[in-house]
Every structure is written in C-alpha cells, then in structure tokens.
Design goal:
Helix content: 25-40%
Bound molecules: thymidine-5'-diphosphate, magnesium ion
Number of domains: 3
Number of helices: 14
CATH topology of the largest domain: Rossmann fold
Strand order of the largest sheet: 8-7-9-10-6-11-12-13-14
Amino acid sequence: MAKSSLSFVCQNCGAAYNRWQGKCDACGEWNTLAEEDTTGATSMPASIRSKRKSRVFALESLTGKSVDAPRLPTGMAELDRVTGGGFVRGSVLLVGGDPGIGKSTLLTQATSVLARNGHRAVYISGEEAIAQVRLRAERLGLANAPVQLAAETSVEDIIATLSEGTVPRLVVIDSIQTMWTDTVESAPGTVTQVRASAQALIRFAKRSGAAVILVGHVTKDGQIAGPRVVEHMVDAVLSFEGEGSQQFRILRSVKNRFGPTDEIGVFEMTGLGLREVTNPSELFLSERDLGSPGTAVFAGIEGTRPVLVELQALVAPTSLGTPRRAVVGWDSSRLSMVLAVLEAHCGVKLSGYDVYFNVAGGLRIQEPAADLAAAAALVSSLANAPLPTDAVYFGEISLSGAVRPVAQTSARLKEAAKLGFGRAVLPESARGDVAGDAGLSLNTVGGLSSLVADIAARGTPRKGPRQGADEGEDGSEDTAHGKNAAPPRFRRQQR
Ligand code: TYD
Ligand code: MG
C-alpha cells in the first residue's frame, strides 16, 4: 500500500530523511534539508503497479556490432574539442557555471550555428523572456539564425511540443533549475523537481535521438547547485569557468561518457560574444612580466594539447603569527607540499614568509608536472633572482626532493620551441623521452636542491652575502630565515 512520502531531502546531495535535522549526514552540509513530497518521484501509484506485467527483454553480448556514436559537430572547434567531436545524438549534457559566466551566450552561439546548417535546433529559456534572448542574439549578430525559441518551464509541455514534427537535433534547456514537472509535488528548484525534470528530459533524449543540453547553476563552492544527482544521470558534464575580472573563459569536461575528460576549450568574452582562442599559450603568455623575479613558465598539458602558462609567486616577510598561503589556480595542498620539500630538503626556510601564488590568465592547473615550475617561481621570488626569460619548466617533485619524469615530454618541448623559448628545465630521467633534436637546450635536474642552488646563485643580493636559498644538507645556519626579521633584501615591494 502506497504511503504518503513526505520527507526531508538535502538540497545539496539529494539524501532523504524522514525527519528534519540541522546537518545532512551524507554530505555534511548544514541547513540544506527541505520538506518535499516525493510520492511521484519514488513510487508509482499502487493501482498502476499492480496492473503492470513484467516484460521479458533480450540480453545482448558484449561483442555485438556497435555503431560509432553519431556526432553533431558545431564547427566551433573549442567546443567540439571538449565534447569529443560534437554533441552525441540521444545524449544529455549538463553545462555548469557561475551566473554571468556566459553559458547562455555559448549555447546561443552553438544553437545558431547548427540552425544555420539546416538542423532543427530549439532553445528553451526558463529564465529570460523571449525579448531578452532575442536581444542577446542581435548583439551576437545571430538574429537571423533559424533557431526555434520559447520561454517555457513546464517539462510536459516542452516534451509535447518537441515531439511534434521533425525530431530536433539539438535542444537547449536554460536552465534545469527553472523546470518543473506535474509528476511531483515539490516546488521548482528543489532536488526532487530538478531530478524528476531531468529524468523526463533524459528519457525524451534517449527516445527521440535529440541531443539535449541542460544548463545548471553552480553554488559558491563550485557544485552544480542542488542537483548533484543530475551529474550522475547525464552522459557528460561540462563546466564553464573563468575569473570575473578577466575575459578568458575555460570550458572543461568533467565527465564524458563519449569522449575525453581532461580537455579544455578556451574562449574570450568580447563585445560580440565568445571568441574561440585557438592558441591558448600565446594568450596566457601575452602579458608576461619579463625579467621580474617570481615568475616561471610552466609547459603543461591540458588534455591532448600543450599549454604554456606563467606561474607567479610572491614571497614576502610576514607580520602574522601564522604566515599566509594564498593560491589562485592551483591546489593549495600541492603548494604546501612543495614548500615542505623546499624546507626539508633544500634548506629554504619559508615559515617566516607569506606566500602568494597565482596562475596567470585564470587557468586552473591540476597536473603534478607544475611542481618544478612552482618551486622555481617561489625560490626566484625569495632569492630576488629573475629566472631566464627563455626557459620553461616542468617536472613532478617527490616528497624526497627528487624530480620525477612526467608524460608527454616531447609535446611540451615542441610547444615551447614553437613559441620561441630557448631552453627547458626538466627531470633528468625525461631525457630518454626526447625524440631527436628538441629545438631547445635541455637543462636536466635530478633533485630539487640543485635547481634551488642554481637559482640562488643568480640572485642579486642587496645587502650581505647570504642567499635566500641555501643548497643542501647543512641547514644549521638557516635559522635566521625562520625569524620574522628578514634580511633587508627581502623587504621589497613587488607588483
Ligand atoms: P550570459 O551568457 O547571460 O551568462 P550566464 O548564462 O552564464 O548567466 O552572459 C552574461 C555576461 O556576458 C554578461 O555579464 C555580459 C557578458 N556578455 C558580453 O560581454 N558580450 C556579449 O556579447 C554577451 C552576449 C554577453
Ligand atoms: Mg543564462
């Protein structure tokens, strides 16, 4: 017998409880439980259940003929790269991002391209009125694209409309949080509603073969708000990121059942919409601070593509009991690890200094290969020793202070040579991976301490003979660095 199923559902992770509590046990968030009627979402009425007879379905073998997922390329190379070659028919893709980052702009551009190529492309806006969407299209110079437009929020009505006439090839739902379905009682925007609406749209996509894109909002801490559950249901999740103050936007694939998950697409927000950036390295290095201490160029790999980016460090004497560690664009625990290795194995005492670390251009780096470049930037700032402007750095640092090889050495070197760099500082063991002439001179380092000694030797001490970083085993005389009273040459203002 069907029970009334009023329950308390966590709006962050979707866990359900039968009474209210302040904290969700599943995800640890406070104050996220809301009362919802989950009758329709979780159970069918008993009358239907008892009538429904079990159906026998055929089981398939793994070795069956599987056709390649048919794709729908948009012709926007940066977008197609991230999806893995275009939208897959019958699949559902979730695009998440902060409000105002450009999700609607990106998807208006994508739908317009497909519509102009003769595909039926539908844009359903649940947030903006038709006039607003038109205004944006006009601004983008896309007003004449034959996109089919609607401002609707009822999932049933939307699916009924889309099922008429030819099957649309692309449907954009902007955004999933504004959609609601009759089958559940809860208010729009609640987890139950969002989940039920997404389920209905996913069923529509699979049945009809249309590619459906759901737009999802992101909360302050980067989760796609409420419907984290939706992430598990869809075929791919793309996240659209960028720093508010910068015009660069990075589209990253977080999950992809039909393609790569580590690719990025780079865009620039201009007055005429999003422009593709085909050579991100040039962009991330375009405003380089040549010859100032504390910057190092990292030769990284994003997906299949090498990307050169400037890492910036500022090491300054602290006035606080606990020194500050501020990181933008990199993992702060990774920074702590590099600082600990510098301190333990290279005699570089940073406990009396605030450390600020930044990745230029708003890129977020996840590769461990950035360790060596980060260490070089940190030591360069501490020792007031500018690094050679024509050098790139990459390599992973182990806890023992050794520099370990990383994948795709040749691709990194090739990109650096292409952009006019003259030398690369890389792990010793990577030399074997270099095929033929790399086009630049290679400085291999086996351990972090030799790199530190090299950089410290380039330093330009303003007073006193001491280097900011001492190589080696003998750390006994380094105590002065640990004190708040830093040598005068560290008291400088940088940027
Ligand atoms: P929008 O696509 O509405 O963001 P989202 O859907 O992710 O909330 O983009 C909003 C921002 O983009 C807004 O601040 C204005 C800016 N913008 C441009 O700079 N140029 C343009 O051509 C357009 C359409 C928007
Ligand atoms: Mg929008």
